[in-house]
Amino acid sequence: MNADDHVSAWVATTGKYLPGYPHHMEDLQFLTGPSIADVGGTPLPEIVEGSAGYFLHAYDASGAEPTGWPKFTGGWHVANAAIGDVDGDGLSEVVTLTREGNLYIWDTSAPVGSQEWPKKRHDLRNTGNYHTPQGQTGSTVHNGPPSAMRARLSLPAGTNNDRLRLRAILALAAGSDGIDPHADGLSVSLDSGAYDLPASGFTPRRSGWRYRDPTGQGSSPHGITKAILKRQRDGTFKVSVSGRDLDLSRYDGTDDRTIVIGLETGNDHGTANAPFRRAGHNLRTP
Length: 286
Prior knowledge:
Blueprint: E1 6-7, E2 23-24, E3 35-37, E4 46-50, E5 55-59, E6 71-72, E7 82-84, E8 91-97, E9 103-111, E10 142-143, E11 146-154, E12 162-170, H1 181-184, E13 186-190, E14 193-197, E15 202-205, E16 208-212, E17 224-231, E18 237-246, E19 257-265, E20 268-279, E21 282-284
Parallel strand pairs: 10-20
Antiparallel strand pairs: 1-2, 3-4, 4-5, 5-6, 7-8, 8-9, 11-12, 11-21, 12-18, 13-14, 13-19, 15-16, 16-17, 17-18, 19-20, 20-21
């Protein structure tokens, strides 16, 4: 290799590089990752990856690029390319943006269909789960707001040492086909900041699901150590979430405030405005 910037591809069963990989890239892949989709119209998909060298590449399993690739944008690529049918012609388009604020869309000869990994975090629900059915990427989102919210943010002095305790009742909206965190994971959000809990961390129980991770390393970002979803007789779910060593520095605990708390699993989503009152340097719901 004559540079540190490259794209790698391995055979999963052996851990060995595919022939033609690692493949040289002309510059840093700054804040980007590969998308995997058919953009060349062949039976196999390509690895679509951009760089700070102004090019968007599409490499097949051998490291070769289809006719018409790479694409030149004249700017740094700072996000994964997204692949899908933008104009409804039955063929996939490739969409990317640059640091300079330009958005690019290219036609391809590839028929639209299920793709391996067509965007950052895989699908429109951002599950990051390879096994999410492709047919659900654009499914209807059912909004069932949580209620009976009780929460506490412990905010001691220092960094990355905050704690969260949250309890709520989640009612599924009309039309929901049910939830399964063991398949879809769970996302817990405080205003614009979200903690994603992987589906693999949930254990099915007789009346719901349990997530337990004493290290807190399984969530993204790290810090969520426990989550329980328990089905109630009326069809609602009692949800409890705990976390420690979190970075909640945006909540300084010096004033009363309202925080938008959200819960999402699969295509079921709910948010509620929760009023918090100051208690020392902590915040808690009344």
